[in-house]
Amino acid sequence: MAISDWPLAERPRERLLAHGAAVLSDAELLAVFLRSGIRGKSAVELARELLAGLDGLGELMASPENLRGVKGLGPAKKAQLAAVMEVARRCLRQTLQSSGALTSPGAVRDYLRLAIAEREHEVFVCLWLDAQHRVISCEELFRGTLTQTSVYPREIVKAGLKANAAAVIFAHNHPSGVAQPSQADELLTRNLQEALALVEVKVLDHFIVAGSQALSFAERGLL
């Protein structure tokens, strides 16, 4: 049955307008963006198919490859979802810039997941912060292969000085989908801590992002 044949009180868009977006399920929210389904499937059913096997909207948005091969999801719908993802990134970046990274740890995680989880190769980024831990910029400094990235402390120090940063949060992704630090990751973090300490830039955290996961070195006691 098409959504247009549903009772008005049960249609996602009408429920959103009447009661607010918070009352909708993940599938219903996604259906509002999709607007229409395909032959034999309503927009809600198509949304449920997209979300099947995923950890909610966060994982879908963090990993756009989940959209590939889904019947009925053409260029227009993919463009709409890509636009939603970029809106989310910019809103989270603005939240971090105004409120401070340490007071919004969830926003840091969400932003990094949206920023780098989808990459098919490893990247290393620096979230440069001012003395109040507000975000100055998020800079991708190094790009590698599927399994590794070469990171040079000298370049990190130069970038920190250029940004006039007081602190930094590092992040890199694991395209393998496994959010576990290697010995090389731990050694690199210690080396970067020591190098940046010489120019009075404090390393607050290092995140490993893999799909919908974002592992924190600080929470693991690795900093």
Tell me the layout of helices and strands.
Layout: H1 12-19, H2 26-34, H3 43-51, H4 56-62, H5 75-99, H6 105-116, E1 123-129, E2 135-143, H7 153-163, E3 167-173, H8 183-197, E4 202-210, E5 213-216
Parallel strand pairs: 3-4
Antiparallel strand pairs: 1-2, 1-3, 4-5
The structural class is alpha+beta
Strand percentage lies at 15-25%
Shape: elongated
Q: Overall mean pLDDT score?
A: 81
- Neighbour order of strands in the largest sheet: 2-1-3-4-5
Estimate percent helicity: 40-55%
Compute the CA-based radius of gyration: 20 Å
Quick one: how many beta strands?
A: 5
The parts where pLDDT drops under 50 for at least 5 residues are: none
| Major sheet | 5 strands, mixed
Beginning-to-end CA distance, first to last residue: 55 Å
Order of helices and strands: HHHHHHEEHEHEE
Report on the structure:
With about 220 residues, the protein is of the alpha+beta class. About 45% of the residues lie in helices and about 15% in strands. The chain has eight helices and five strands, in the order ααααααββαβαββ. A five-stranded mixed β-sheet has the order 2-1-3-4-5, with helices on both faces. A hairpin with a 2-residue loop joins β4 and β5. α2 packs across α3 and α7 crosses α8. It is elongated and about 65 Å long. The mean pLDDT is about 80.
